[in-house]
Amino acid sequence: MEVTDANAAMLSNYEVYQLLTDLKQQRKDSGKNKHSAGQQNLNTIMYETLKYLSKTPCSRQNPETVKNFLTTMVPHKLTKAEKLQLLNHRPETAVEIQLMVEESEERLSEEQIEELIQKVTDVLPGDPEQEGSAPSNEAEMDEGIDQ
Amino acid sequence: MFVAVEMVDTVRIPPWNFQRQFNDAIAEELNKKLANKVVYQVGLCICLYDITKLEDSYIFPGDGASHTKVHFRYVVFHPFLDEILVGKIKYCSQEGLSDRHFSLLYFQYDEAEQVWVWEYETDEGAHDLYMDQGEDIRFRVTDEVFLDTSPTGPSAAATDTPGAPGAEEGGQKKEAPYTLLGTISEPGLGLLSWWNS
Question: Per the CB 3.0–4.6 Å rule, which of A1, A14, A47, B4 could disulfide with A61?
Answer without folding.
Answer: A14
